[in-house]
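Hi team,

Filling in the usual template for the complex we talked about on Friday. All components are listed, including any nucleic acid strands or ligand strings, so the model treats them as one assembly.

SUBMITTER: L.P.
PURPOSE: interface mapping
COMPONENTS: two
RESIDUES: 543
SEQUENCES:
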Amino acid sequence: MRYLGYTLANEADTPTDPPSPELFEKMGRFVEEATKAGVIVATGGIAPTSEGAQIRLEAGQYTVVDGPFAEAKELVGGWAIMECRDLAEAVEWSKRFLGVLGEGEVRVRPVV
Amino acid sequence: MSPADSTAAIEAVYRVEFPRVVAALAGFTGDLALAEEVTQDALVDALRQWPRDGTPRNPGAWLTTVAKRKAIDVFRRDRLSVSKYAEIGRELEITSPFDANDPALHVDSDDEIDDDRLRLIFVACHPVLAMTARVALTLRLVGGLTVAEIARAYVVPEATIAQRIVRAKKSIADAAVPFEVPSGEDRLSRLGAVLEVIYLIFNEGYSATAGEDWVRPDLCAEALRLGRALSALMPREPEVCGLVALMELHASRLRARTGPTGAPILLLEQDRRLWDRLHIARGEAALARADDLAVHRGPYTLQAAIAACHARAFHPEETDWKQIATLYTELARLTPSPVVELNRAVAVSRASGPAEALALVDLLVATGTLERYHWLYSVRGDLLEQLGRAEEAAVEFERAAALAGNHQERALLTERARASRGIAPATRDAE
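RESULT (copied from the run log):
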């Protein structure tokens, strides 16, 4: 089963500085471990909403709004697609990811 | 850490850690049976201690250390028969008597564990074992599947798999197979044996040789996991990349390969919009890496290149059949086999027409080597049908149906025979 895991945060609380070399290194090691376990099949980070746009279609009318547009706690920061046998395994890998990050919130959902 | 971890969460940690822990223990003890046993015993300890004390920060290191202590206990207990363990306990000889500060109990570095994982893969796929034993042992010790999971995947009783694994471990011990990645002349053929096992697991998932279900995606996923792990451990081996590319590209079609009732849908009839683009992208990337690493494409890379030709065609009529026929010719030169020849004939039929292909197939029929292979008759039936020889085609499809081992394949071939005879499909209403 494939799972999408993604981080959620308040944009206001999210540091804009690049990660410290130490965190960068720890995260690199984690990604390597998860890749070697055959779990991570794709992963990436997502830039702040200020660099993105919001597109809506309502009553035949498109509205495009440039970022920033995040409401509280809905910023997706990073994501990974994981091949896991079940949700419990995906949860375990998410815990490890958060352990590297120090704190935060990850949601995991099956990709169907 | 949180003390509230449930049994299910602890078991998930264990499943995630198992392949690394058992590999480290196999390296430590040189004894697969003992490695598996003490790893399992470590889980029992974890299930007792972690709910009370919390899951340790580094659960893998915890499990490995506990398992090593248990292995040392076994060595100590069997001290009278120490000669048996003299070689096995090689790391333990550094310090004697056994003590808790034994440097052998140090936490293995990631590199050391990687080395042990790679060695374990090569040992589990050792040619001293029968293929069924290699598959079971690899799924158990390298993949970390339980005996029950393997039995379910292969539709055989659990006892059969359990026995197969016990015997395999014994054969490895009896043959004194060294716990190492072979070097020198052996290396390539032993790597070939490893790739063969992984591909066999994938293929059983991709088109099951027995049972009701034609595909078992879980088994494909396990093979892919093994392949990805291997390619991370041996990033410079072109054929490892080639095999991963081949499996990714084939796996991309899994959703499109069966209809709602589980009936197979052949490549040219699949809804290609269902093909998994992530698998295709990963397959293409792995193929490109294989091509970068090798001067000449090996058999897995060639097959991946063929699969990529299909993946690149959004509609069947866009398929580059000339290229595919050329690739099959190369493959036939590298690994001559009647099955490759049959596939080449299919590509030729698309590139140059059914008559030329039928000539190739008839040559194959004349050799008699594939007389029990249902796809031979299925392909021949298909070519005859294209040539308007419906009656002969029906006979071939019937012959193919009689030889097909899988229930779903048999149903499909029977249906084609009926269609060739102009009989309306049994289950479908006229549209």
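MY TAKE: Chain A has one domain: 2-111. The domain at 2-111 of chain A is CATH 3.30.70.1060 (Alpha-Beta Plaits).

Thanks, L.
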